[in-house]
Structure formats: structure tokens, C-alpha cells
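Quick entry, no commentary yet.
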Amino acid sequence: MNLASWVEKWGRAAADRPAIAFGEKPHTNYRQWAARSRVLAGNLRALCRPDDRVAIAMTNRPEFLEALFAIWHAGLVAVPMNAKLHSDEFGYIVGDTQAALILASPDRADDVAPHGRTIATVSREWRRLFQGDGVDIVPRQPSDLAWLFYTSGTTGRPKGAMLTHGIMMAQTLAYFAEIEPVGAGDCVLHAAPMSHGSGCYGLPFVAMGANTVVPESTGFDPEEIATLLAAHGNVSFFAAPTMVSRLVNHSGFAAADHRGLRTIIYGGAPMHFETLVRAMDLLGPKFAQIYGQGEVPMTITALSKALHADRARPRWREIMGSVGLPRTNVEVRVADEQDRDLPIGEVGEVLVRGEVVMAGYWNNPAATAETLRGGWLHTGDMGTFDEEGFLTLKDRSKDLIISGGSNIYPREVEEVLLRHPGVFEVSVIGRPHPDWGEEVIACVVARPERTVSAEELDALCLSAIARFKRPRGYVFLEALPKNNYGKVLKTELRRLHGLVPEN
């Protein structure tokens, strides 16, 4: 049950079918991709031991897909890393997984090279990886690791969710069952990072021998997306709500021909109702919502295209504010602090069980035991079921900040700011932002007789964490509000300093 068998299958059965496009131009067909995968896998096996981890530090590009499937072909474990990370953050993941090799795009090679053997995609060594004889696919069991999905945690250190070949297969089949079928003439476009959700959403398209389109910009550009919709047709892609907002507010995209769009799958943060209606008015009923996590790859609940289109349905507005119904292959509960089921309408933690739930956290048995206690994944998200079975998320118990579709955990930023000798206490919270959803704000208490500037703290953050995680504003206080147990009252901080959404 090796996921790489999909490329091999279509390399024989539909050899000339387009497999990967870079912008408007074809990059490889399935025959070429299968051949390159066999050779690259053979050379990776020569460099690694069985079941070794191979890290990928790449912005979106065709080589990411070639690396990912060749790693699986060779019987190795892929460790895709967010290309926006700081060098030290790359180093932690590489060290935690003891990765035998890092495959990097040219723009990230210098950042990862200090942490392990690195091969950049434009180098002579990369080209040598595609020379020689190919090898057969290494057989894999459903329980064998395929993908270590690193997601931030409240401790400030990322955790590697262990996703097996069986889990990724279950996620792929669930897409066909409840989001949309995929055929040879369909395309998936990667406008969001392939190292995370977008990469997971792309797997069903490879499974069915469809085309994968990687923008030449390697990222999100509304005008480029409009061009690619027209060039390829039948295009589906994942977009965070902030990306949807930017699309519909972009005059060039709004005026373009959208007939090539098939589906936009959104998730990762709340979608404002007005933004969703405006997007549907512009593009038609081409939207589906998925709620998931790295620990349950994009498969907890879904709000289908049919439900989006049914505006005459009673309570349609309320349903559009939910994250949908539980997926067919998972059980979803809302429970109290003792993991007891709560009645309809009451808010509790969302718990999930099923074949798509992670096997645990890599090299972290304590976090695994806590998160999977009782046989249920504890998501950390707070939600409630309504009388029709739709789940609505109310809050994030782990204080997650989502800015521009990227997850930012306050504790990670706080730990960096506390390195400054003049900082006594700090609490990081999210402030609503019209374009990015939220932005990071740091509430700082300086040590007595010390002065601390925003410029100093900015420089400290840029030296230690990714740029997108650094605070966009600083509030300097005499003290942080706390309860009787000494816990910082972040809700009170937001209220006192106006960091709440306008009514």
C-alpha cells in the first residue's frame, strides 16, 4: 500500500497524460514522472537506510512533488517543512527527526544547510540524483509511516504528527466520498504551501491521474490564478479564508473569466459570512469547507458544495457559519473536561476518532498520551453541535492565532521575547485584521528601571523565528491582568486594550 504506486500506475496506464504543470507550461507527463521517480528513489536509497526520514524545505515547485513521491517510492519517510520557517526552526525539525537528508529549493538551501546534508534542486548533485537505473517500489504496510506533519504546539516547540500510508489513503478516499470526484481532465492548483494542507488536498488528484498545477510565482497571486484557471480548466484548489477575501477584492481577478474554476476548498480559519456570499455571487456555488488538523489530515467535518448552493434551506446562514457535518469515516464528539459527552447546544472540546487520526507524535510519548487519551484525538478546539448535527467552532482552547492562513502559537513568540534581558513578562494575543484575519500583538511588561523598545523586540524575533510570526504591534504595560491562580487573563487583555472585533 505505497502511495507512490499511484504515479507508477498512471505512468503505465496513461503515460502521455499531463501530470505536473509549472504555470501554463507542461513540466512532465505521467510516463516521465514515473521514470524520474524510479531513478530518484534508487539514488535516495543509496544515500539513506530503510525508514530514514528525508526533509523537504521547498517553496512550491514541481520538484517538491518529485521529491515527495520518490521518498515514498524508496520506502522512506517524508518530512515536508514550511518554507517560511527560520533557520533555527528548520534545525529543530531536522534534529528531532534525525533526518538523513534535506532536499531544498535554492531559496532555502542556505538556511537548512547548517543542519544536515542538503541537496538543492538546481545543483549538480541534484541532477546526479536523476542519473542511473531505477528501482522498484518498496512495499509498505498501511501502518508504515509516510509523512511527519509538523504542527506548532502550545509548548512553543512543533510536534510531528505521524501520518501513515493507511491514514493518507483514508484521507484521499474521504475526499472522493464527500468533496468531489476527480477525473483525468481535472486539475489541482497549489496556491497555498504544499508542505501542509494544500499538499494533502493534492493527493486525490495524483491518485486519479489528474494534473497538478504549480504557479510560477510559487505562491498566491490573484492575477496569476485567473490566468491559470483559463489555461487549464476544471481547476480546484485550497484557499484560506483570507485568500478568498483577497481574490474577490482583487479587481483583476474579479473581472477575469472564471469558467475554468471547479472548486475552492476553504478552511483553517473562520470565513466571514459576508465574504462567503460575495465570493459565491462572483464565482457561483463552487465552494466547499473542510475542517481538519495536521493530526487528522483535513478530515473531521465538511460543508459540501450542495449545502453552499442551497440558499433556500432553512437556517442556511447559520449552517454557513458552521464547519459542517462529521465525515463518513470519523466519529466526532463534543465533550467536557472529563471527556463526557455534552448535549446539543453546549460548548466543549471537539474529540475525533477514526482511521484518519494520526498514529501519535514523533518522539513525544507524553504529548501522544495526552492528545490521544481514551482513544480519542483531543483537538483543542471548542465547539458545539446543533440539532441537525452541524458542528460550529466557538473558540480555540490553545490560543492559536491564524494570520493569512498560517498558524501562530503565542507561547512560541512569548518564549523568544522573554530572551530580552529587559522583558519581565509578556503575553501574545491576536488582533483582528481586515486582510489577514488576525495579526500578532505582544503585551509587554518591562523589568524595573529598564526600557525596552519595539525595534529591539522586532530584531530579536527576526533572529529566532519566521517573519510571519513576529508581532505587528507592541503594547507596553505595568502589569498583566491575572486570576487568583496567576494565569494571565488574555480575554481581559483584549478587552482592556481594544483588541476585539468591532460590533
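second:
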Amino acid sequence: MAKKSFTPIPPMAELPPAEEINVPEILEKYLNGEIDLICVLGPTASGKTRYAVQLARQINTILQANKAEIISADSRQVYRGMDIGTGKDLNEYEEIPYHLMDIVDAGTKYNIFEYQRDFEKAYKDIVDRGCIPILCGGSGLYIEAATCGYSLPEVPPDPQLREELEKKSDEELIAHLASLKPLHNNTDYDTRKRLIRALEIAIYEAEHPVQRTSFLPKNTYYIGTLVTREVRNERIDRRLDARLEEGMVKEISSLIDGTHPALAPAHKPVPAEDLIYYGLEYKFVTLYLTGELTFDQMRNQLATAIHQFAKRQMTWFRGMERKGICIHWTNV
């Protein structure tokens, strides 16, 4: 009998070292102007929202005043009506004010330029009122846009161009993008959605004068919520099953048929392809609702996709560290 061969399992990336976070020291740094923003980041299911709320409460206790406010850095929690699938968990915030959630309609294509602009507006509002901003989220690109002063182009979406680009392979799209701009790293094309948007921007910039943002970088104290891959994946699976039981399928179905309360008063349905565009929960549940997947296929493929997404998030954050950004990782 031929001896079976097995593909070796790649070793897990080593976790960064954990630190004890000294909240009074961080607050002192903020009050004396050494930092001007606190950021809590981490992959999905790492407990960052709960940690950010606890951090806000600790700050409020020290100051004996309600001063800490949270700004979301999540690329999908901006959408009204997309609650269970994006894990807004608004009940966790209780008395802590939050910003940049439920600010645009489901079905629209909110982009990084708009997020950077809206972040600056929320940040200025919080600081002008003498309060303390805490940025919290897992979207690495949004976090960097908010904190690193990226100069971003204002380029409107072009549905016709996107439709044409969707017909091309990833290789063709990357080659086209490379012909229009230098590709310094793969962040422009680590997902097909981002690749098409990057090409849309590059094509527009080649033909039109473009207004760019010019916001200053923030002196940010970054805190990373640290969990092992095994614990993270267990949490993802438990949370996914809980969300399915809470009515995530019904929520997404009501967006498709236009009955969701967030769509009032017009009750305009959100096309299935728009929900698929948002990825993860909205992609796989929509494929189930349109009959392309069974329930079990949807659940299992979605769990795998979220595991992979969390891994990519950690890869992004470790990449931020390689660029010189100091992240203070802590066990939660």
C-alpha cells in the first residue's frame, strides 16, 4: 500500500507580547498633549468594543465626569439597518456616546474618503467640547486613514465602469492598475472589491483633476486586543450561531424586500448584489436567501470566511507595526 502523504500545517504566527495597560498614565499623556487620540484595535471577536467601553468608563471614573466618547472605525457599521450582521452591539455602549454608526443608508457605497472626512468632523466635535476621543474598530485601512493623515482623492463611484471591470480577471485588473500607478504593496488589491475601487480611482485621476484630503496625522496611543487564534475562532463560531438565532437572516431578508424599518419611509429594497458587495455575513446570507447555498453551506462557508478575515486583520495590524506604528497589545 502506498504511503499517504500529508500537506504540512503551516506554523501559526507568533503572537505579539501582551502588556498591562496603565489607564491613568495614558490619560495623563492625553491631558498634557503628548497624545491626542486613543485607538483600540483588534481583529473581529477579540473583544475590542467591550474593552473600549471599559476604557471609557475608567477614564470617566478618574476624571469624575463623563468625558470619553467612542468613534467607530468599522467599514460596515456606518450603514443603517445592518445591525446584527455587522455586530454593532449598541447595548454595550449604554451611557458612553458613540459616533459614525448608522450614518448612511444600506445599499449605498460609502468609501474611505468619506470616512476620513466624517472622522475628522466627529473628532473635532468631541475635542471642541472638551471630551476625549477613543477610536475603536477592526478596519485597518479606516484606522490608518483616520490616524496617519493619508491624502485621499475624492472620486465618485462609476457603476458602469465597475460593471466593465467585474468582467476582467484579477490578473488583468492588477496589470491595468500597475500601468496607471506604482504598486508599492498589495493593500490596493488584497480583495477584489478594493482592487476595482483602486482601479476606478486611478482611471479617474488619469483623466480629471482630483481634490485630495489634507488632514494632519494624530499622535495616537494604539491599544490592541489580543487573543489566540484558537480562542478567536471559537468566539467567531459561537457569535455567528448566536447572530443566526437572533434573526440575522430575517434582518437581511427585510433589507432585500424593503420591509426593514431603517428603510422607511420609502421602503426601497436593497438589491441582493449590493448586499453581496458588503461581504461576509451579507454576502453569504444573501446567497442563501437567493437559493445559491443551503443553510448549512451558508453557515459553514461564512464561518470559514470570517476566520480568514480575522487572520487578514491581524496581518494588517502587524504590518502597521512594521511601518513603525507602536501597538500596545493587551490580553482581554
